[in-house]
Amino acid sequence: MTNFPVEKIRADFPILAETIRNKPLVYLDNAATCQKPQSVIDSLVHVYAHEYANVHRGVHTLSVRATDKYESTREKVRSFINAASDKEIIFVRGTTEAINLVAQSYGRTNIQAGDEILISAMEHHSNIVPWQMLCEQTGAVLKVIPMTTQGELIYEEFERLLTPKTKLLAVVHMSNALGTINPVKRMIDAAHALDVPVLIDGAQAIPHMSVDVQALDCDFYVFSGHKLYGPAGIGVLYGKQALLEAMPPYHGGGDMIKRVTFEKSEYAGLPNKFEAGTPSIADGIALGAAIDYLTAVGMDTIAAYEAELLAYATEQAKQIKGLKLIGEAAEKGAILSFVLDHIHPHDIGTMLDSLGIAIRAGHHCAMPVMDFYGVPATARASFAMYNTKQEIDFLMQGIQSLIEVFG
Q1: Does domain 41-296 have CATH number 3.30.70.100?
Q2: What SS3 state is found at 239?
Q3: Is the pTM of this model over 0.70?
Q4: What confidence tens digit (pLDDT) does each residue in 42-69 have?
C-alpha cells in the first residue's frame, strides 16, 4: 500500500519522535499497548482543564458537559462495533474486568456443577483464570480446544468438545502471543446450534480489523481502550441486551441504583446497572477521540497496511539463520513471535533496547502457549499502523548484530 499515509500518521504520535539511548525510538510492542495520537492526549488535557466534573449526577453546567461527552463515547463505541443499542455497551476498566464481570454475573447465575466451559489453548491469562475461578466456585469443568504447532485451533477437536454439557464458549479473536486470527464466526454459529453463548476476547483484534458484533452474532465481546490507541483504565463489555438485562450486577454502589433502603435496593437499568461508582471520566471521553481517529483512517485500510508489514517482516525473519518463528497460522495479525538459538528472549529484548528498539520478551500472559512450544518465553515484535518497513529493517539488523555478539 504505497499510498498509505504512514508518515502523516506518525506525525500525529508525539512519542515516536523520542530517542532511546541516543537512537530513534522504534516502538514494536503494540500488542502490549499502543501509543496515543495527539488528539487523544489533547482530549484528556481538555477534559481536566475545561470540563471535568462527575457524570450522571449533577445538574450544574460542568457535570452536564462531562456527562454529554462521556455518553457520546458510548454511542461512538456502539457505532464502531455495530451494536444494536448503546444499552449493550458497558464501560469497564479493561478486557480483564469485562471477562470477570461475565464470569461472576452470567457465570454464577447460569453455570452449575458438571457443566463445561470451553476455551482455547492460545488464551491470554485473562481468559483462563476467571473461568478457573468460576469452576472452583460452581463445580463446572474447564475444557480446552487444542492447537497445532502452526498455531491454529484444531477445528475437529472443537466440534468434538462442543457438547450439550457446554454452557459457555470463551475464545480469543486474535492471539496476543501468536497473532493467530481464529474462525470466530464459524465457531459462534456452531456453538449457537447447541444454544451455547459465546464470549469473544477482542483485545488484540479490535485495533487491527473491523469488528461487527451483529454480523458475528457473538453474545459478549470485550476489549480495552489502551490497545485501541486510547487511554488505560477504560474498556468495553458488549453484551446482547436480553442477556445483560437478565444478569445481576457485578459491583454495588452509587450510580447503579434506582432506589436504596436498608431493607432492599432496586437496580438501575442498562447500562448503569453494571457501572457502579465514579467511572474513568476523562479516559472514557478520550476513548471517543481514539475511535474518531481510527474511523477517519479506516479500519480496513489499517488492516491492509499491517498485513503488508507482517508479510514483509515474516519474509525478512525467515532469512535469519537460527531464528525460529513461533506461530505461523494462515490467518494472522501483525505479530511476530520468535526465538533465537542459544539466546534467551530477555537478552534479545535488552540488546534491542540498547538500539532504541522496543519489543516484548516473556510469556506474554500466555504461559500455556509457552509450555505447548516447550520454550520459557518468546521475543515478540508487534506492529501498528504507524510502523514502517524501515523500522522492520532496523529490527532485523539488530537481531543479526546480537547473533554476532553471542556467537
Answers
A1: no
A2: strand
A3: yes
A4: 999 999 999 999 999 889 999 999 999 9
